[in-house]
Write a structure and sequence with these properties.
168 residues, 3-stranded antiparallel sheet, two-stranded antiparallel sheet
Length: 168
């Protein structure tokens, strides 16, 4: 039988101690998207739908076989929703979909790049780093974003240009 002493890093006392010293907290956002819904929206609204939600680079990354394209678009949509959750947006708040961009430089894992006003929300929330995981299978696409948030007043320096986004 396992005892609490076998897992000292899970100690409540240590967790509280780390938070008191400003180590920060983790914030998780996740979303699940039904791929046929994205395919139907693209069929119904066409390029107008795509341009409203996705950057040129995101659309280029999703080119190819239509079935796979819809799955990739749905995964990116789920990633944007997951980011909105960690930014703490309420139901009555909205930001442009393209303020959150999923990028995938050649040979690397996908990541998030923020643009204004998402950068300002990340600063306000004290978020300074995130990790993204996306997946799709059959009819569903999912994305999970894990971010670190400082407990102290945020000291991020983010300019209005994308490369200094706290997520990239």
């Amino acid at each position: 039988m396992l005892r609490a002493t076998d897992f000292p890093h899970f100690s409540v006392r240590r967790r509280r101690s780390a938070q008191q010293h400003g180590a920060g907290t983790m914030v998780v956002g996740t979303d699940l998207v039904w791929i046929p819904e994205v395919a139907n929206s693209v069929s119904r609204f066409g390029q107008r739908y795509l341009n409203k939600l996705f950057s040129v680079a995101e659309l280029r990354d999703c080119e190819g076989i239509p079935e796979r394209r819809y799955a990739s678009l749905a995964a990116r949509f789920a990633a944007k929703e997951a980011v909105m959750k960690i930014l703490g947006l309420h139901a009555d708040q909205a930001i442009p979909w393209r303020a959150i961009e999923v990028i995938r430089p050649r040979g690397t894992s996908p990541s998030i790049r923020l643009h204004e006003p998402a950068i300002a929300l990340a600063k306000q929330a004290g978020i300074h780093h995130c990790a993204l995981s996306m997946s799709h299978d059959h009819e569903y696409a999912t994305a999970t974003v894990i971010a670190t948030r400082s407990l102290k007043k945020p000291t991020l320096r983010c300019s209005k240009t994308s490369p200094s986004s706290p997520f990239h």
